[in-house]
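User: Quick sanity check before I run a bigger batch. Here is a single chain. Can you write out its predicted 3D structure?
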Amino acid sequence: MRKYYIAPGMIAEAKPLDYVKIARDAGYDGVGLRLQKSPQFPMYPIVGDAPLIRDMKRVLADACMGALDVLAFYVQPPARIEDFRPALETAADFGARYLLTQSDDADWTRLCDNIGGFCELAAGYGLEPIVEFVPNRSLLCTLPAALKLAADIGRPNLPILLDPPHLIRSEGRAGDLKTVDARHFPYAQMSDGILAPGEPDLALAKTIGLGQRRMPGEGVLPLREIFDALPTGIDISIEVIMDRDPSISSLEWAKEGLTRTKAFFGDY
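Assistant: Done. Predicted structure follows.
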């Protein structure tokens, strides 16, 4: 049965313990965890805080919830691979399955070397990186680039995170997914979105940035075609990062995302 996870960006304002409680109360099967700094979101430290980790794990265990992924590992200079070790230890402690990995490195050889090294480090903790292509990145900006990365680092089954806005804004199409080995897609993110005038256009996306997201059904993306082209029944991480009415609480927003996503898949 398909499982539904909340991504931290859905309710980025929630502190870590509140976040897992909101996920529990909203009815999610589990969570994604933010253990690394992000240029976009506030960072509430978790790594090294033993009491907080204990309390978060207790909430997750009592609710029979799991940790799907940990984000986001920006594997690019000036970061050193060894600097990620404490976060990997914490990810393993939470029983996470995947490490959401991105890079904005403009040097392809260095990018491959660093992500290859990160994969080796992660393997020592029983964790698996999943690479996310993002259209406003230098090189790792399209599905073909992610597939080339997998081939070039000698990991032909490297998981690739499919985020609908990123696929369409990088000039990809739902049909492109049908030619990709299903093993690349162990789960996917859910978000609708709108396009700026002139999009989809990769060069334009690089100047605009991350674009604008919407709840499922409220945007213009071909979500039905995209998910029909992905492996049947894969788990979903819900990540609708957008401004909301201040009167809508974090819990209400989390519930809204889950309700709309389940309705999309006909899972009532």
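The domain at 4-265 is CATH 3.20.20.150 (TIM Barrel).

User: Great, the batch can go ahead then.
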